[in-house]
Design a protein that fits this description.
alpha/beta, 6-stranded parallel sheet, 13 strands
Amino acid sequence: MKKIMTIVGARPQFIKAAMMSRVLKSDYNEVLVHTGQHYDKNMSDVFFDELNMSPPDYNLNISGGTHGTMTGRMMISLEEVMLKEKPDMVIVYGDTNSTMAGALVAVKLGIPVAHIEAGNTRGSLSNPEDINRLVSDHTSSILFACVESAMDVMKKENLSDRAYFVGDSMLDAFLYYSSITDIKSRTDYTDFDGNRVAIPDEYYYMTCHRQENAETKGNLLQILLAAQELDSTVIYAVHPRNRKRVTDILKEHKLDNIVFINPVGYLSSVALMNNAKKVITDSGGLQREAFFANKQCVTVFNYAWWPETLHNGMNRLVKPDKNDILEKLSMEAVVDPNYKPFGDGHSCEKMKEIIDRYFA
């Protein structure tokens, strides 16, 4: 039985790997390596627990420091693991430091690399994630694209001979976990004091934590003032990095239309998404999940990581400005059942078939 080493380090990668592991386990011996890039319980352990993933075979516990320091430490440790395990293939996901470190070490050892979610780019070498993606794509033997626009990027980079459009494994995960969880089964919604929060029947779901929004008091205040004026309660899952900023704002402003809760796990987020009226976010992942759930979304940022979500106004870019947010949220959006840019929800099966053919 061939051995595949899967390398993960960040929360979205755990979700994708959980889905991929389901299809690999019948025919492959999988070794799971967690670099430790996301290391606290809310960002790591809880995801392995609730997704029923086996604990990592290796946890490198590497986090913090500069990009170069982190990547270098990862490469040293990953080389030791690969020399010990001697995998027949290495799978990496996305565009993190863990992704690039895994791809570089594997290719230098002559091990083929499969890169899942290849080709996604903002087109700027000033962006660390773009650099990670570029290096990972050009050192991989198999490139799996989750949207057609990624295929266009790889064609321009002369990578078409090893690139395949398979769809998005995050869609696979969203559909699968939506079928086995619901809002009433989730009990981990808590306020800042740890008290359980009851979720109302009608609400908006909000996450805003990017530095551009969360670390500027004026920007975050504008977002919160918009939420305060909406016609239903807003459930705001507050990232640890902006909890103090939120607390400071609450000392000066009455925001009783907003329920502030602690960060939630993936299943609870899926349940919140599926039952929300609309979504306010600055997350590339959440704007995609809103699209999967046919929920109208506004993204508080100047760039759409997934331009496919902008179709028919299902996602709109907004400034951190109360009036702009309220105006864009009030605009009509149209669900197009025939528009499926992220595939059909069976990307993992397609990737396994291509890996099978590669070994054959």
